[in-house]
Structure formats: structure tokens, C-alpha cells
Amino acid sequence: MYENYRREDIEDHIHKIGFHPLDVMVTGATGAGKSSTLNSFFDKVVAKVGEGVDPETMELSAYSLTDQMRFWDTPGLGDGIQRDVAHAKKITDLLLRTHHERFYFLDMAVIIVEAGTRDIGTTLNLMEHVLRGNLPADRILVALNQADFAMKGRHWDARHNCPDAVLKAYLEERADSLKRRIYESTGIRLCRPVYYSARYRYHIDKLYDLIIDHMPDSPRKISA
Ligand SMILES: Nc1nc2c(ncn2[C@@H]2O[C@H](COP(=O)(O)OP(=O)(O)OP(=O)(O)O)[C@@H](O)[C@H]2O)c(=O)[nH]1
Ligand SMILES: [Mg+2]
Question: Is any atom of ligand 1 closer than 6 Å to the C-beta of 39?
């Protein structure tokens, strides 16, 4: 479904960067819905989604949407101290992977946060200890998933597949507060998150727009 979405805009960025594909890492706390988000981009099951209480994704996996765009699914943090160390290392290794020792391999990262949780400790930890210093802030995006469940399933208008006015106002407030809290805790100023539901495919286009509108125009050069 998204194979041809805004193809010219994507190609325009790729042309400026000078090589393809553009590599986008999808990261965030365990259970936020990273794998589900990738499946909604591809409109089929590419990444295994957790069904039980255990975290699902343990390794990095790459999925090419087109020959211009490749997404990296990553294991979520917040899954115990030992595992977090191992997972953070995998993510850091990906952030520091290079092309011919001239450019970093990964172009940007999207952090997925569960809209229904106020506990963003894992997200802040990921930003402070894994992303900061390894990826410039203008290559980091944040998005709120599970918009349908932000108020425990209340105020989701199933008939129209969208939030009602109450839930929408709540989600707007959550987006502002997430951006503010990230800035207050880490000093990292990100653009305003979009909210969406991977499960119900609501606002997936908004998430995709956010990514396309913030694609870099240059490769990540390794400074000497
Ligand atoms: N209600 C609702 N549930 C969702 C949504 N997206 C994902 N889920 C559910 O959340 C759970 C975790 O989803 P995953 O996609 O496996 O999450 P993940 O971030 O990849 O998790 P790890 O691989 O463990 O890091 C699953 O039960 C999904 O069905 C959503 O938009 N709405
Ligand atoms: Mg996963």
C-alpha cells in the first residue's frame, strides 16, 4: 500500500543524499508496537508481533519497502536489566555501522511510544543512553502508537475507525506533553509526535508523512 506513497518526494531526498536505500530504525520500549507498525506499512505480516506478555523481537531485522526505503525493527527496551544492556548494544552497533568508513549506514530513527502510558522512563533512557551522541536530534522522530487504546479503549469510534472528540483532545494533549517531557528531561528538542493506531491502521499515513517530511538531505558523514 505504501510502496508508491509520495514516491517523488522520497526520490528527491535520496537524490540529495546520493545513495539508497534510506535506512530508518524503528525503536522504543517493548510492546509499544514497533513490529505492528512495520506490518501496517507493508500491509501484511512481515515482523512477528507479540501475543503474550513476553517481549517478542529479540534481534534486528531489516525490511525493504521499496529499493529506496528500508526499515529496521529492533528489540524493545524495558525488558529487564540484562537484556536491556544486550539490546542497547545491538541498537548502538546499528547506529554506528558504517559504509566504507565514510558514512554511517543508518539515516534516521523513529521512536514508538505507547499513547496510553504515562511512564516514558524507558523512552527517555533510550534517548539519553543510546541515541544521544550517536544520532543527531534532527534525525530522530517520535510517534504515539495505540491511539485506539490511549483511554483503555474508551472513546474509540469503531464505526468510523477514529478517536471521538474526547479521545482526540486527549491524544493531542499527550503529543504535546511527550514532546515537552522529552525536552525537559534530555534537552533534546524533537518535532511534535503524530498519534496513530497500527492495529486499526488509523493515521498510518500521518506517520509516513512525518518520516518523509523529515528525511535528511545529506548522508551522515563520519567526521575525521
Ligand atoms: N490496541 C492496540 N494494540 C496494539 C497496537 N499496536 C500493537 N498493539 C499490540 O501491542 C502488542 C505488542 O505489539 P508488538 O508490535 O509486538 O510490539 P513491539 O514494540 O514490536 O514489541 P517488542 O518486539 O517486544 O519490543 C501486541 O499485542 C499488539 O497486537 C495498536 O495500535 N492498538
Ligand atoms: Mg517487536
Answer: no
